[in-house]
Design brief:
Number of strands of chain A: 0
Strand content of chain A: under 5%
Number of domains of chain B: 4
Helix content of chain B: 40-55%
Mean pLDDT of chain A: 88
CATH superfamily of the largest domain in chain A: MetI-like
Distance between the termini of chain B: 69 Å
CATH topology of the largest domain in chain B: D-Maltodextrin-Binding Protein, domain 2
Mean pLDDT of chain B: 87
CATH class of the largest domain in chain B: Alpha Beta
Oligomer: heterodimer
Number of helices of chain B: 15
Distance between the termini of chain A: 39 Å
CATH topology of the largest domain in chain A: MetI-like fold
Radius of gyration of chain B: 26 Å
Radius of gyration of chain A: 23 Å
Number of domains of chain A: 2
CATH superfamily of the largest domain in chain B: Periplasmic binding protein-like II
Shape of chain B: globular
Largest sheet of chain A: none
Shape of chain A: globular
Low-confidence stretches of chain B: 1-5, 10-30
Structural class of chain B: alpha/beta
Order of helices and strands of chain B: HEHEHEHEEHHEHEHEEHHHHHHH
Number of strands of chain B: 9
Number of helices of chain A: 11
Largest sheet of chain B: 4 strands, antiparallel
Chain lengths: 272, 401
């Protein structure tokens, strides 16, 4: 039985990660034909070409700028929204608001993308024929990233003892100071998790970007446009680097969460 | 403390690297000083991987244009003519130069999406050979300048396909059942059937399209898959033996793989396609866009460009600058009689293109019968799901009582 369950776990992981491993292996393929099926020796040439390729680098730059700005803004917005939501006393109103916040998450991406595009085009045209671009992309990304931040901050607020904030005020903090000194450190892990999540989601996004990009090109859109000729192994190299970067971020998130949990348990242990 | 030290070391290393790379870069590009920036950026929308981009010692066309003229280029890419069209029709993206294919050019002209070009600003148009001027998709040649062209032919694996290929009929040969690939787009796939039947690509006769569809349905059991760029892998590793595709992509397939050959069916003729430079209506920088088009028509630039892309140039002057083995290669520059026997796609009238869409769906899906089964299966799943939900609800209620 134990063996069976191990085999099963192995198969699940194989299924999940085999494509990524193939991608990584072929990023080191030394082949003139850009073959994706015949491995003909180890080389780093695609990595070298990748950094030489101005178009990929431009697309990457755009993607990163958008991800950083969108994640930062979404984190602030999401945290404020979470605090507001947590403060609503009426159960029904709170549920309503939560549903409205979650809507962009459950909405099919293509619907969000098209509706945002229609809105942006309308606004751009009434402002005198502006072109969509970086700004519309950033706005779109903030829109779909914010709910994820709300979702990761809210549980931390719920876990927090509401009396802490009151106690701080009793001890002479004004509300603002009490927030920064007491509430913020308490919910920080949730904020950081939310921010990293927003960042990775923004880098990933293709569908919404595709509709709202105007004349700006992000990395996923660039890769997609290569499919008439063929996707060059430079993209394998880049994907490998991105995979490693995202993996790194995820490991950080998980370590943080584990540490948190331990701290929580220790605290509870002390209390009892 | 140690962190600070490490940081400083890194910083110093970075500076060193920078210092080394700057003089190296400067010495290689000391021909003429860059033109002063004009503060204008043109938006160019081209096919993916369709311009020489400076990788591995090739010419970086956009950077060279900026250096010579001081105009910045915001270069973006698309994957199909249809996504270019939806971007233009959807609004919100102001392009200055676009590069659609033949039939899309005529569609855009008909629907009023293109601006007439001012050929006084494009003196290099003189290099475009006579035979590529006034094409069927732009009969008066007011809207477009050809960028590259090519023909459709058949890639085959020499180990398995021994006979000579001179007809599209080979794609219907049962000997190669399961080893044949076809285009995953309606115009190219129907085009092959139409040529086999001796009809025009741009026919408006419903009966002719129906016949072509019948022929494709007949072929379907022999076809391994309808694909686009996957043909490179499938052909290279021997999964497939026969695949029609664009000659311009032969460079990546034939040159590095001795087993793969390329042949243009001479018996019925083939499709001759052109990707052309155009300026969309309302372009913000039309003059600079024309400068860009003119720059791309400069024989030297055109030669460097097609050398990288692998498609063919419409300029004899550029051809002279290309390596001899490319120009003499019938894959890239097929003999004149093949070109005379080929036809270019033109936009189809609304009715015909609707007919084509539905016929293509029939060919790929296998007709309305299969759609019905699909709907039935989906409905079945839905019912099952509802059943489970209802059952759980009832069970939960009972347990509560």
């Amino acid at each position: 039985m134990k063996v069976a369950s191990k085999v099963y776990t192995f198969l699940v992981f194989l299924f999940l990660y085999a494509p990524i491993f193939v991608l990584i292996i072929f990023s080191f393929n030394d082949s003139d034909t850009m073959s994706r099926s015949v491995f003909s020796g180890f080389s780093l040439r695609w990595y070298a070409r990748l950094f030489e390729d101005r178009m990929i680098m431009d697309a990457l730059k755009n993607t990163l700028i958008i991800a950083v700005v969108a994640a930062a803004v979404a984190t602030v917005l999401g945290t404020v929204a979470a605090i507001g939501l947590n403060g609503i006393r009426n159960k029904w109103v709170r549920r309503m608001m939560m549903n409205v916040t979650n809507l962009p998450m459950v909405n099919p991406e293509i619907v969000t993308g098209v509706s945002l595009m229609l809105l942006f085009v309308f606004v751009a045209q009434s402002l005198g024929g502006l072109s969509l671009g970086m700004l519309s992309l950033i706005l779109a990304h903030i829109t779909f990233c914010t709910p994820y931040v709300v979702l990761s901050v809210l549980p931390k607020l719920r876990q927090m003892d509401p009396h802490l904030y009151e106690a701080a005020q009793d001890l002479g903090c004004d509300p603002r100071r009490a927030f920064f000194k007491v509430v913020l450190p308490e919910i920080m892990p949730g904020i950081v998790t939310g921010m990293i999540m927003a960042f990775t989601l923004s880098i990933d996004d293709f569908i919404i970007s595709y509709f709202t990009s105007g004349t700006t090109q992000t990395l996923p859109i660039y890769i997609y446009s290569m499919t008439r000729k063929r996707v060059s192994p430079e993209i394998n190299a880049l994907s490998t680097l991105l995979f490693v970067a995202v993996l790194f971020l995820l490991v950080i998130v998980n370590l943080r969460q584990a540490r948190d949990k331990r701290a929580q348990e220790r605290k509870e242990g002390l209390e009892s | 403390m140690s962190f600070k030290k490490r940081f400083l070391a890194l910083f110093a290393a970075a500076l060193l690297l920078l210092g080394m790379s700057v003089p190296a870069g400067a010495s290689s590009e000391e021909e003429e000083p860059a033109a002063p920036k004009r503060g204008v950026t043109i938006n160019v929308y081209n096919w993916g991987e369709y311009i020489s981009n400076g990788v591995e010692g090739t010419l970086d066309v956009n950077a060279e244009f900026t250096r010579r003229t001081g105009i910045d280029v915001n270069y973006t890419t698309f994957d199909t003519n249809e996504s270019l069209y939806s971007k233009l029709a959807g609004g919100g993206a102001n392009y200055d130069v676009i590069i659609p294919s033949d039939y899309m050019v005529s569609k855009l002209i008909e629907e009023g999406y293109l601006e007439k070009l001012d050929f006084d600003n494009i003196p290099n148009f003189q290099y475009i050979d006579e035979q590529y001027r006034n094409p069927d998709y732009d009969p008066t040649n007011e809207y477009s300048v050809p960028y590259t062209w090519g023909v459709v032919g058949i890639f085959y694996n020499k180990n398995y396909v021994k006979e000579e290929i001179n007809s599209w009929k080979i794609l219907w040969d049962e000997k190669y059942a399961g080893k044949i690939l076809m285009f995953d787009n309606p115009r190219d796939s129907f085009g092959i059937a139409q040529k086999l039947l001796g009809y025009s690509f741009n026919s408006t006769d419903e009966r002719e399209w129906q016949e072509a569809a019948m022929l494709l349905k007949e072929q379907k059991p022999l076809v391994q898959a309808y694909v686009m760029d996957q043909i490179f892998d499938k052909m290279a590793n021997g999964d497939a033996w026969l695949a029609p595709y664009y000659a311009g992509d032969a460079a990546t397939l034939v040159e590095d793989n001795p087993d793969i050959g390329f042949a243009i069916p001479t018996e019925e003729g083939t499709n001759f396609f052109v990707d052309a430079l155009c300026i969309p209506k309302g372009a913000a920088h039309k003059k600079e866009a024309e400068e860009y088009i003119n720059f791309l028509c400069d024989p030297e630039i055109a030669a460097a460009n097609v050398d990288y892309i692998g498609y063919s140039t419409p300029e004899s002057a550029a051809k002279e600058l290309l390596p001899k083995e490319t120009v003499e290669n019938p894959i890239f520059y097929p003999p004149q009689e093949i070109l005379d026997n080929s036809e270019v796609f033109v936009n189809l009238p609304e009715e015909t293109s609707l007919l084509l869409d539905s016929l293509w769906a029939e060919v790929k899906m296998g007709g309305p019968g299969e759609t019905a089964t699909l709907v039935a299966i989906l409905a079945g799943f839905l019912l099952l799901y509802i059943g489970i939900v209802v059952y759980k609800k009832i069970k939960a209620k009972r347990e509560l009582q």
